[in-house]
Amino acid sequence: MCHEVALRVCRAAGFTPRARHHIDDFDAVLALVAADQGVALVPQLATVSKPAVRLIAVPTRRRTRIGYRSGAAAHPAVMAVVTALRASAGAFVRA
């Protein structure tokens, strides 16, 4: 998924990157960047541990959805989780 996002962002900027590695583990991705093996797009949540690389904000957006069984929207547990996730995401976006 992140590889496809990186390709789209690069294409929108007018170039196609030469991908040498495909890894779904962000710690491994950042370790490769720290080892001078290229650059990467990573979500902000993947950088909480303060990696030893330079981080630059990129004006991209990621959409995330909440999924639950059809017809379960009124269930108290589902409502509580949805409310908590929205509150948490709202706090993150404002930070």
From TrEMBL:
Which molecular function term from Gene Ontology is one that the record holds? DNA binding
Query: In terms of domain of life, where is this protein from?
Result: Bacteria
Keyword entries, A-Z: DNA-binding, Transcription, Transcription regulation
Say if the entry is tagged with keyword DNA-binding.
yes
Q: Which residues form the LysR substrate-binding domain?
A: 4-88
**Gene Ontology cellular component terms for the protein in this record:** protein-DNA complex
**A Pfam family the protein falls into:** LysR_substrate
Question: Which SUPFAM superfamilies does this chain map to?
Answer: Periplasmic binding protein-like II (SSF53850)
Is Transcription given among the entry's keywords? Answer: yes
PANTHER family membership: LYSR SUBSTRATE-BINDING (PTHR30346:SF29), TRANSCRIPTIONAL DUAL REGULATOR HCAR-RELATED (PTHR30346)
* Family that this chain belongs to: Belongs to the LysR transcriptional regulatory family.
Protein name as annotated: LysR substrate-binding domain-containing protein
Species this protein is from: Sphaerisporangium melleum
